[in-house]
Write a structure and sequence with these properties.
This protein is an alpha+beta fold. The chain is built from eleven helices and ten strands. A hairpin with a 2-residue loop joins β2 and β3. α4 crosses α6. The longest helix has 29 residues. It binds flavin-adenine dinucleotide. Flavin-adenine dinucleotide binds next to β1, β3 and α11.
C-alpha cells in the first residue's frame, strides 16, 4: 500500500489550497455564516476550477476532469479542512446523477443531471415497500405501459426527502411473468400528480423525515425508464453501490470526530475541560483508533481502485465501521452533555432551543444508519460469505440481500 501522494499530487494539493485561500470563506464572512448565494457562487467557482463534480461532463454541469482518485481525495481532504462547501448531498446528486451517467439515455442525462447536482430538482428514492426492504426484489408495486405512459400502482415506504422532493426514482414490477429479479424496471416519476399520495410517518423526535407513498395509477411517460424493461435490478445495483459509498465515507467520520473533540474541549468535568478527564480521553482514543482504521481501509480501497482491482467487500466494511463510529461518537457526546442532551431536538419555540440539537439528531440518525442502504446484519453476512468464504447463514437462507 502506497500512503504517500507523490510530488505531482502534492503540487496539486498546493493549487487546491491556493484556490481555497482565495475563495473560502467569502470575503468579510466566516464559513458558518455564509449565505446560500455565497455558497452557490463558491460551488460554481469550484466547478469552474475543476474541483467539484469532476466525473460529470461540462455539458451536464460538471467539471469534466480526467479520473484521478488521488486528486479527488486531496480535494476532499483540503475542502474538509477549511469546511468549504463540497458537492451537494442527497439522493438526487449522489445517487440518481451517477446512476443516470452510468445507465441513462442521452436525453435523461441532459434533462436531469445538471438540475440534480445543482439542487434545482429534489429527488426521493422509491425502493422499500412493506415486506420488501432487505429482500428488495420481493417488491410488488406494478407498472403497466398504457398509451405511451407507465401506470404505477402500489406502495413505497421509508421515503426520505419527501418534504421537498418533486421527483422519485422507483423500482417497479413491470414484467409479472419474469422471474423475481428480472421483472423489475427503474422508473422516474413526478411526485406532484393526482396518483401520488404522501403520508408522513411521525418519528419519536416529533419530526417526520420519512413518508409512505401510495401510488394509485400514478403516471409517467414511457421514456422515463432508466435502462431497458426488466433491467431495473441491475440499474439498482449500481445505485446501491453509490449509496454505500455515500454512507461509508472516512472523511465524514473524521469530521464527526473533530466535532466531538471540540465538544470535549468545551465541556467541563469537575471544573476542568472534559478532554483532560482520563476516562473521556480513553474513550476518545478508542474512537480515534476506529477513525484511523477506517481511513486506512479507505486507502486500501483507493489503492485497489487505482490498480483497477475490485474493492470487494471493503465498501461494506467501511459502511459498518462508519455506522459504528457514528454511534460511538453520539454516545460519548451524550455523556459529555449529560441530561441536557435529551432536550427536544427540533420544533422548539425560538429562544428555547438547547443548542444540542445537532448531537441529539446525530444520535437518532446514527441508529438509522445501521439500517439504511443495507442493514449491518446483512452486510456482515455478505462479508462473511463472499469475503471470507464462510458457509451461508442458515437463519437467513432463502432471503436475498438488498
Ligand atoms: C435512515 C433511513 C433512511 C431510509 N431512506 C429510504 C429511502 O429514502 N427510500 C427507500 O426506499 N428506503 C429507505 N429506507 C429503508 C431501508 O432501505 C430499509 O429499512 C432497509 O432496506 C431494511 O429493510 P426493512 O426496514 O424492511 O427491514 P427488514 O428487511 O424487514 O429487516 C428487519 C431485520 O431483519 C434482518 N434481516 C432481514 N433479512 C436478513 C438476512 N437475509 N440476513 C440477516 N438478517 C436479515 C435485518 O438486518 C433487520 O435487522 C431508509 C431507512 C432508514 C433507516
Amino acid at each position: 500500500m502506497e500512503l504517500g501522494y507523490g510530488t505531482q499530487h502534492e503540487a496539486f494539493r498546493e493549487q487546491v489550497c491556493a484556490f481555497l485561500r482565495g475563495h473560502w470563506p467569502p470575503r468579510e464572512t466566516d464559513a458558518a455564516s455564509a449565505s446560500p448565494e455565497q455558497i452557490r457562487s463558491f460551488r460554481r467557482a469550484a466547478i469552474d476550477a475543476g474541483y467539484l463534480y469532476r466525473n460529470i461532463p461540462r455539458r451536464y454541469g460538471g467539471s469534466e476532469q480526467e479520473p484521478d482518485i488521488l486528486a479527488a481525495q486531496i480535494i476532499r481532504e483540503e475542502f474538509g479542512a477549511v469546511r468549504a462547501p463540497t458537492e451537494l448531498t442527497g439522493q438526487g446528486p449522489q445517487m440518481l446523477a451517477p446512476t443516470l451517467l452510468e445507465r441513462g439515455s442521452e436525453w435523461q442525462k441532459e434533462h436531469f443531471v445538471r438540475k440534480a447536482i445543482e439542487g434545482e430538482h429534489i429527488w426521493c428514492q422509491g425502493y422499500s415497500e412493506p415486506g420488501a426492504g432487505s429482500d428488495l426484489a420481493s417488491l410488488r408495486t406494478t407498472g403497466v405501459l398504457q398509451d405511451g405512459e407507465w401506470v404505477i400502482t402500489g406502495q413505497k415506504i421509508w421515503t426520505t426527502h419527501w418534504k421537498r422532493a418533486q421527483y422519485m426514482f422507483a423500482l417497479v414490477r413491470t414484467e409479472p411473468e419474469a422471474s423475481k429479479h428480472a421483472g423489475i424496471s427503474y422508473l422516474l416519476l413526478k411526485m406532484d400528480q393526482p396518483g401520488v399520495e404522501v403520508r408522513p410517518l411521525k418519528q419519536i423526535t416529533g419530526d417526520a423525515e420519512f413518508a409512505e407513498v401510495f401510488l394509485n395509477s400514478a403516471r409517467t411517460p414511457a421514456e422515463w425508464i432508466v435502462g431497458e424493461r426488466g433491467e431495473g435490478w441491475n440499474v439498482s445495483r449500481s445505485l446501491l453501490r453509490h449509496e454505500r459509498n455515500m454512507i461509508g465515507s472516512a472523511n465524514r467520520s473524521a469530521g464527526l470526530f473533530r466535532s466531538l473533540l471540540r465538544l470535549a474541549r468545551k465541556t467541563r468535568i469537575n471544573g476542568r475541560p472534559a478532554v483532560e478527564d482520563p476516562q473521556i480521553r480513553e474513550m476518545l482514543a478508542s474512537i480515534y483508533g476506529y477513525v484511523e482504521t477506517q481511513r486506512c481501509s479507505s486507502y486500501v480501497q483507493l489503492t485497489r481502485e487505482l490498480n483497477s482491482r475490485d474493492a470487494g467487500t471493503l465498501p461494506m466494511f467501511n459502511k459498518i465501521t462508519d455506522t459504528n463510529i457514528g454511534q460511538a461518537v453520539s454516545k460519548l457526546a451524550q455523556r459529555l452533555l449529560g441530561p441536557e442532551s435529551i432536550l427536544a431536538p427540533r420544533g422548539q419555540p425560538p429562544g428555547r432551543t438547547s443548542g444540542n440539537e445537532k448531537w441529539m439528531n446525530q444520535f437518532m440518525g446514527s441508529l438509522g444508519m445501521a439500517i439504511a442502504g443495507g442493514t449491518t446484519n446483512i452486510q456482515r453476512n455478505i462479508i462473511a460469505e463472499r469475503g471470507l468464504g464462510l458457509p451461508r447463514d442458515v437463519a437467513a437462507a432463502g432471503v436475498e440481500e438488498s
